[in-house]
Design brief:
Mean pLDDT of chain A: 87
Number of helices of chain B: 9
Radius of gyration of chain B: 19 Å
Mean pLDDT of chain B: 93
Largest sheet of chain A: 2 strands, antiparallel
Number of helices of chain A: 14
Distance between the termini of chain A: 66 Å
Shape of chain A: flat
Helix content of chain B: 40-55%
Low-confidence stretches of chain A: 322-326
CATH architecture of the largest domain in chain A: Orthogonal Bundle
Order of helices and strands of chain B: EEEHEEEEHEHHHEHEHEEHH
Helix content of chain A: 55-70%
Largest interface: A-B, 36 and 45 residues
Structural class of chain A: mainly alpha
Strand content of chain A: under 5%
Number of strands of chain A: 2
Largest sheet of chain B: 6 strands, mixed
Structural class of chain B: alpha/beta
Distance between the termini of chain B: 62 Å
CATH class of the largest domain in chain A: Mainly Alpha
Number of domains of chain A: 2
Oligomer: heterodimer
Shape of chain B: globular
CATH topology of the largest domain in chain A: MetI-like fold
Order of helices and strands of chain A: HHHHHHEHEHHHHHHH
Low-confidence stretches of chain B: none
Strand order of the largest sheet of chain B: 8-9-10-3-11-12
Chain lengths: 326, 273
């Protein structure tokens, strides 16, 4: 009897059975594993034995109340608001750029061109100084009101109210606005790619059902575009968390890294505060990645995903016959 | 005298310099089933898309149920209708596409419910009940919670038909509804369409299925090079065409169908072995 299923064995009426073969060996992989293990051991050794880490100080610094406040306001809140501004404005810009109207498409292009060209640090610095443009306050009222009044020989500016420009263009609000406006330029390109990735037949089918352009965009095109838009938006959000450390340029003080640095310069423990910052950023990004994968799963429905709510036709009809709205 | 449901006069359309429709006159009465036949590039799909204004026409006029499509005549001058009014006109016309174009992020039932819910603004309970009835009518009651990607091509096309019917259209347009299907899935879609025709729906069907045209259509229209070459009773036109171009086209289709049948037979034989 032969276990290899040779032709001779087959001729004897024996058919080849289950495959139980010797796998290919990969000696190169074992070398790499050994190398990485040694590196990991060295790293752990460094973290545990090197006293410069001063772990108890790191832990202390991480939970100081100005640091926590900086984390909540300057890092998380600014990221959230800036990304909301960026997504809403970015989708609007993307729809404008895809419009047949050359003025709309052109202005979206100019916006994207401008904000992509300016480094964020420089933009935030400039936003912080914009108050100089309106030393007597920013009039809120009729557009060009001041000039119109002048044209007809009067005085005044047709403004309902005047706000202090120095207050608008400073602090956390200015930081959110600056980062949001800058990010919108990138989000516009991401949203445009997403919208263009949707089969034009989808829009046609929606139109053929009597949907208007807005409804077709909102209900049919954008939800499908989201599948393409979400992953790079996750990247952008994570990048935004890190870019909040640029708020220093406005300047904004209630921000994670600024506060940690302040502790560092007060206590001369500069290395441990850097470690504290790294750990906070690692924690935030880990949480964001989990949230991103949830969102991706939601917008991936219908694309190779399994049916979400297998309620079954029978139960549905029973519910309807009973007249009980679910 | 009752007016035709679709009244197209001297319709012309060009893409760039390429004239696709050169003065088409077609009338379709309510309850009538008309098949548009012709070689590819003859303009039949374009004409169908002009009826529900997925394409704008360059010349001529199309009236659907007595209403001029896409324009309004005021003081002897044509005014283009606002997009909202055009969307309103499209609501009365159901369309079934060659590539199904189901919404992939919605289940079969959600596909059928979307337009009555969001466009007509009907109540969810009513729309769901009607949606399930329609899915039952096309034989897909059990598949209501499946996404399009989990359905075969034939099933997807039947959902697409149910989706169009959910708007209670006066007219159904079919753009080569079986051309993208595997041969063994064509029959189930044609059966649904046949039942729809028997129920009295007005249908304009662009198709290469001669068997369907012969047995279901009240009239066939043969188009070539952007003009109507001949039209009439399906058996007469298909069995005894008067024009040379019709004869050539039908002979070629017959040949293809024979090859197709032979291939199917061969496959059946192979499976038997």
């Amino acid at each position: 009897m032969s276990s290899t299923g040779s032709p001779a064995a087959e001729a004897a009426g024996e058919r080849p059975g289950k495959i139980d073969a010797v796998p290919v060996r990969h000696p190169g992989r074992w070398v790499a594993v050994a190398f990485l293990t040694v590196l990991a051991a060295m790293l752990v050794n460094l973290l545990v034995t090197n006293t410069a880490f001063n772990w108890s100080f790191v832990r202390q610094a991480m939970i100081q109340s100005p640091v926590i406040q900086g984390l909540l306001v300057g890092t998380l809140l600014v990221t959230l608001v800036a990304m909301i501004i960026a997504v809403l404005l970015g989708v609007t810009l993307a729809v404008m750029r895809l419009s047949d109207n050359p003025v709309l498409a052109g202005s979206a292009f100019v916006y994207i061109w401008f904000f992509r060209a300016i480094p964020r640090y420089v933009l935030l610095f400039m936003m912080g100084t914009l108050g100089f443009l309106w030393p007597h306050g920013l009039p809120i009222g009729l557009p060009l009101g001041h000039d119109l009044v002048h044209l007809f020989g009067g005085t005044g500016d047709l403004a309902f109210t005047t706000v202090d420009a120095n207050k608008i263009f400073s602090g956390v609000f200015c930081g959110m606005l600056g980062l949001g406006l800058s990010e919108a330029a990138y989000m516009a390109e991401i949203a445009r790619a997403g919208i263009m990735s949707v089969d034009p037949g989808q829009r046609e089918a929606a139109c053929a059902l009597g949907m208007g352009n807005g409804l077709a965009m909102r209900r049919i095109v954008l939800p499908q575009a989201m599948r393409v838009i979400v992953p790079p938006t996750g990247n952008e959000t994570i990048a935004m968390v890190k870019d909040t450390s640029l708020l220093l340029a406005v300047p904004v003080g209630t921000e994670l890294f600024f506060q940690l640095q302040a502790i560092g310069s007060r206590t001369f423990e500069t290395f441990p505060v850097a470690v504290a910052a790294v750990i906070w950023y690692l924690i935030i990004c880990t949480v964001l990645m989990v949230i991103q994968s949830r969102i991706e799963r939601y917008f991936g429905r219908g694309f190779g995903a399994k049916p979400s709510k297998q309620q079954g036709a029978r139960t549905r009809l029973l519910a309807l016959d009973g007249g009980t709205p679910r | 005298m009752s007016q035709p449901l679709v009244h197209a006069v001297n319709v012309s359309k060009a893409f760039g310099g390429n004239e696709v429709l050169k003065g088409i006159d077609i009338d379709v009465d309510a309850g009538e089933v008309v098949c548009l036949l012709g070689p590819s590039g003859s303009g039949k799909t374009t004409f169908l898309r002009c009826i529900n204004q997925l394409e704008t026409i360059d010349g001529g006029r199309i009236w659907v149920d007595g209403e001029l499509a896409g324009y309004e005549e005021k003081n002897g001058k044509l005014h283009r209708l606002h997009d909202k009014r055009i969307a309103g006109q499209r609501r009365e016309i159901g369309m079934v596409f060659q590539r199904f174009n189901l919404f992939p992020h919605k289940t079969a039932l959600e596909n059928v419910m979307e337009a009555p819910l969001k466009v007509r603004g009907r109540s969810k309970a009513d729309v769901e009940k009607r949606g399930l009835e329609l899915l039952d009518r096309v034989g897909l009651f059990e598949k209501c919670d499946h996404y399009p990607s989990q359905l075969s091509g034939g099933q997807q096309q039947r959902v697409a038909i149910a989706r169009a019917l959910a708007m209670d259209p006066k007219l159904m347009l079919f753009d080569e509804p079986t051309s993208a299907l595997d041969p063994e899935l064509v029959g189930e879609v044609l059966t649904v369409m046949r039942e729809l025709a028997q129920a009295g729906m007005t249908m304009i069907v662009v198709t290469h299925e001669m068997g369907f045209a012969r047995t279901v259509a009240d009239r066939v229209v043969f188009m070539d090079g952007g003009v109507v070459v001949e039209q009439g009773d399906p058996r007469e036109v298909i069995n005894n065409p008067q024009h040379e171009r019709t004869k050539t086209f039908l002979a070629r289709i017959r040949e293809e169908n024979d090859e197709h049948a032979a291939a199917l037979e061969e496959r059946a034989e192979a499976e038997k072995l």
